[in-house]
Every structure is written in C-alpha cells, then in structure tokens.
Amino acid sequence: MDPIKIMPCLDMKNGRVVKGVHFVEIKDAGDPVENARFYQEEGADELAMLDIAATIENRKTRLEWVRQVSSVIRIPLTVGGGINDLPDIEQVLDAGAAKVSMNSAAVLNPELVREGARKFGPDRITIAIDARRNPAMPSGFELVISGGTKAIGKDAIEWARLCEELGAGVILPTSMDGDGTLSGYDLEFTKAVSDVVSVPVVASGGAGKLEHFYDAVVKGGARVLLAASVFHFRTFRIRDVKTYLKERGLHVYL
C-alpha cells in the first residue's frame, strides 16, 4: 500500500498565508514562499495552496502565487480557489501546480469534473468538499460552498460518491465544525467519505495532537493528512508526525 502522506496547507489571502477557526477569525501565518521552502525541507510529501478569498471575491486564482511557490519546491503542489473552467485548470497547471482542487465550481457544474479528468487526467483533479452537520441530510452532512458561506441542501457524502464517478482522483473533505479548532479531524465525516470512494481521501480540518493524525488514517480511512495551524505555528514538525505514525505501524516516508 502507498505510504501515508503529510500535506501542509497554505491558505492564501492578500498574498499572505493565513489561518482561521471555522473559516473565520483569520490570523497571519507568514510568507507563502518561505513556508513552502521550509515545508519541503521538513519532509512534506505534498503541499496545498488554497486561495480562500477567490470564490467569495468572484475572481480567479492568483497565478503569480502559484508560480512563486512552485518555483521553490519539487514536491507536488495542489492549488485551489477560483478555478471555474477548463482554461482555469490549464493555466494553474501551466503555472506549476501538479493538481487543481475545485469546490464550488464543481458543485455548480458537475460536468467540469468529468471534462477536467478527461482532458488532464484523474490524478490532477482533486475535489474539495466542505460540509457541516445537518440531520435533515441522509448522511447527516450538508454540502457547503462559497468558502463555507452557503449551505445548498445537498448531501455531502452522495456528492463525494458522484465525484469519483465523474473522474476525480482525490477527495478532500473538510468539516466546518472542526476547521482550525485543533480538536481533531472530523472522523465521522472523513470515514463516511472514505467508505463510499476508492480514490485517496485527504483528512482536513482540526488536527491539533499527534494522535489526531493516526486516528485520521486508522479510524477515518484517510491516505493523505492535511494540516495548517499545527505546522504554521510550529506546534509540531512534520518529522514529529511521521515518526509518531511510523512507530505505530503506519507506512510513511521519513
């Protein structure tokens, strides 16, 4: 089985890395190029960069950010935010990204997932799924778009299953209930997604202790572990996480 991967995430706003709680209460977390270079040196397997304001501000991803970050790393870079059509995907990949991550645009136009996977390959298409708990949904999780600002009355787990059918190569679920809280990944949500898809699932939102990373794999079924706050504010080093996982029998690249 492929090794578990560690993926720091650069949430971008106004050219800076930021981090919030529940998608708000934003704090500055440094320069993106410096962070990217640091994380590669620390042993990150992949890197994510999300332009968190692009959809809300109705604009495209800042390609200069993609170029700047991709120029200083060799590990795969996943870029999301403001990617709305095939030309957007192509421009972001041409700017140096290995993968694109789409959220709102895919929900509003599911055929974009199919078309993107067909043209660029499934491995380059990640679908980010934001959700919040809602007992009215069959799975208990409601899909939320527009940077976490708009619940749309659709079941998040059914959407994950459909995304794989459409050709997505990676699913990145984030629970709004846990984002930035450091109280642990939403294992129920992560497991619900991993149970209905066979492609890699990225655990996202809420990592605060070393055991949270382990639980995301063993209890949540995740293959990639995304985190932001604990890395940005140096709570843990990436090697700390990898060593912890390896000591508990999980396959990682040290």
Structure description:
- This protein is α/β, with parallel strands linked by helices and 254 residues long.
- The chain has a single domain, classed as TIM Barrel (Alpha-Beta Barrel).
- Helix content is 34%, strand content 26%.
- The chain has 10 helices and 12 strands.
- Strands 1, 2, 3, 4, 5, 6, 7, 8, 9, 10, 11 and 12 form a 12-stranded mixed β-sheet that branches.
- Strand 4, helix 2 and strand 5 form a beta-alpha-beta unit.
Strand and helix map with partners:
Layout: E1 5-13, E2 16-21, E3 24-30, H1 32-42, E4 47-51, H2 63-70, E5 77-80, H3 86-94, E6 99-102, H4 104-108, H5 111-120, E7 125-133, E8 141-145, E9 150-155, H6 156-166, E10 170-175, H7 187-196, E11 202-203, H8 210-218, E12 224-227, H9 229-232, H10 238-247
Parallel strand pairs: 1-4, 1-12, 4-5, 5-6, 6-7, 7-10, 11-12
Antiparallel strand pairs: 1-2, 2-3, 7-8, 8-9
Helix pairs in contact: 1-2, 6-7, 8-10
Q: The CATH topology, please?
A: TIM Barrel
Radius of gyration (CA) equals: 16 Å
Question: What is the total number of structural domains?
Answer: 1
Q: Structural class, from helix and strand content?
A: alpha/beta
Brief sketch in words of this structure:
The protein has 254 residues and is α/β, with parallel strands linked by helices. It is built from ten helices and twelve strands. 34% of the residues lie in helices and 26% in strands.
State the main characteristics.
single chain; 34% helix; 254 residues; TIM Barrel; twelve-stranded mixed sheet; alpha/beta
